[in-house]
Design goal:
homodimer, 354 residues, alpha+beta, 9-stranded antiparallel sheet, 17 strands, 29% helix
Chain lengths: 354, 354
């Protein structure tokens, strides 16, 4: 295991709030960050350097790679061509396989099922006839999702009855899709798991997530889980990380159902449902990720407090004056300017003391 | 009270580790930072912008001021001419009076004594004859310090006997100096205190400091103080802040003696002995300072854990592999490159759980 030396530079693909918090964590460990981002980059406010260029700009990609020692990413939809070029120049952590699996819902579900892990029932859908057959087989309601480029509820259509089929298929714009059957679940939890270059795995305590309009609203730790469920959740995450020879932090979303834990999806990066670790752990998910990709030992991720993380979405940020005064409440803003509906503007971590 | 709007830029004079951690804290509150630093600027790794120019460069100072909404500082020895120019262009917080008092040991001690606060006995020394008279009056051992520009044990000479007088005075290079009599103290503690633009004051729990070779080595909270001493420490700090109409965080160093608390010195900025607040409080000293200078309400600075902060000085940083693996230990590195004797390379906060 080669440790990244003090003063080395970590390249981050993507300059949103995750990149911003990764860059801050890297600074605590004595590293610099160079952000690569085609659009606006709030991460640039706290990074050593920012490259603003599209992922198709080969010269910019080469310059970026030449200036960094290792490359990581804050979102998984980086175009393959960019990754091919970058990978020929510098190590990318987490590795390409993790990206390939998580960029494609069908690859992801196949990978998980092949590992012996449960998912919601699903069927590949490439045309309206496929969708009819799939709806027949899985039953309705169900949810149709494009296999690629979906996040925060985008690229999704819910089917409540057979009559919804044409509109749902039309909403996919002809993109390869997957129909997911509904599973009656009691709650959604997620495990933020980390794996180091030495193969060691550390999982944070599972958090319980509440979504609205397809966007995460709150994560609460501890999640309401039985001891057996808690152990299962961690074992599932560890199995996924080991199978991918993963290096870094991953978010693993799980449905708690009467027939056990189902994997909803995996995200090969730091995850919104892991923001609570900033308030409840000595080493948060951002530092844990940087430690992993830098080849350092994983840190102490034990939870020492109960925490409720709440996202500030759109106008939620107007509650700021009150939140800044609240006890046991840590405010994290992303420097994104004007609030827009559905836009993640920040989050707060409220610590519940016993 | 005018709040700095989201996305505003805070100018920081000085680009060392304090500026670095201030910039990170500012990002959490949605602000950007612009660092002004004549030399190497580790703060620049996590700042929106850095100006590298001497404090005598009027054009650079004007450009800096034009790009920021408010100016603060991470060290108190900024030349007066630079401050005069900057103050004509943008608000400086904490204010000039706090700087003037803390830049000059005689002004500081006079200010404190005028407030009715105790200091070690002292005498102004402008020539060797002054020093002889002062040594006679205060007794030896005593310590001779230049009135300006001293920090971390620099610009100081200890006098154990009369024979040391010529060498001690020679070491001051003719600079205006002050002789401080020794006071038998049980321990040194410091209070990190904050005052907002609305005049509200919040003090962190006092920490107990251990120095070696004139440099802070550890701060431990809670400090060993009686309830009365604890109350006194906080009242002293509040009295100083109010008297200066102060806005921001200040470090107040106190000697615990049989005849009460003596003020050793004040620092009109975030303070090394307040680094423990990163591990033991919801809102740390860096965010508290940014909140104050930005006109936001002060945050929750209540201590929820026992903490030992240890500075990593020079080769201490070679213990890094072990520290990165230690439980309940948060590592903070400053990105300063090669260790040098006496150079602050980072610090660790070790949380003691009951």
């Amino acid at each position: 295991m080669t440790e990244l030396p003090q003063g080395a530079t970590i390249g981050i693909l993507g300059g949103g709030q995750l990149g911003r918090m990764l860059s801050v964590a890297a600074s605590r460990l004595g590293y610099r960050c160079h952000i690569y981002e085609p659009g606006a980059a709030p991460a640039g406010d706290v990074a050593h350097r920012v490259t603003t260029a599209p992922y198709e700009d080969e010269t910019a990609l080469r310059g970026f790679a030449a200036s960094v020692d290792v490359i990581t990413y804050e979102f998984e939809n980086v175009p393959t061509s960019a990754l091919d070029l970058l990978e020929s120049l510098r190590p990318i952590r987490p590795n390409r396989r993790a990206l390939a699996v998580s960029q494609d819902r069908i690859a992801e579900k196949s990978f998980l099922n092949d590992l012996g892990l449960q998912t919601a029932p699903w069927a590949q859908v490439d045309c309206e006839a496929d969708l009819r057959a799939a709806a027949d087989r899985l039953g309705l309601p169900a949810i149709l999702k494009t296999t690629r480029l979906g996040y925060d509820g985008k690229g999704q259509a819910r089917l409540n009855a057979e009559a919804d089929i044409p509109a749902a298929w039309a909403a996919m714009n002809g993109a390869a899709s997957v129909l997911e059957g509904f599973v009656p679940f009691e709650r959604e939890v997620s495990v933020i798991a980390a794996r180091g270059m030495d193969g060691s795995v550390a999982c944070y305590d599972p958090g319980e997530n509440v979504h609205r309009d397809g966007i995460l609203r709150t994560t609460t730790v501890p999640a309401r889980l039985t001891p057996a469920q808690r152990a299962d959740a961690v074992l599932i995450a560890a199995r996924i990380l080991n199978a991918l020879d993963y290096v870094g932090v991953m978010g693993v979303e799980l449905f708690v159902t009467p027939r056990g834990l189902l994997v909803n999806e995996i995200a090969p990066r730091v995850h919104n449902s892991g923001h609570w670790t900033q308030a409840g752990c000595t080493v948060d998910q951002f530092e844990q990720h940087i430690r992993a990709v830098a080849g350092l030992p994983l840190g102490d991720g034990n939870r020492y407090a109960d925490v409720v993380m709440e996202n500030l979405i759109g106008d939620d940020v107007l509650r700021l004056p009150e939140l800044l005064k609240a006890r046991d409440t840590a405010v994290h803003l992303y420097g994104k300017g004007t609030p827009r509906p559905g836009r993640k503007m920040g989050h707060v971590n409220r610590v519940i003391r016993g």
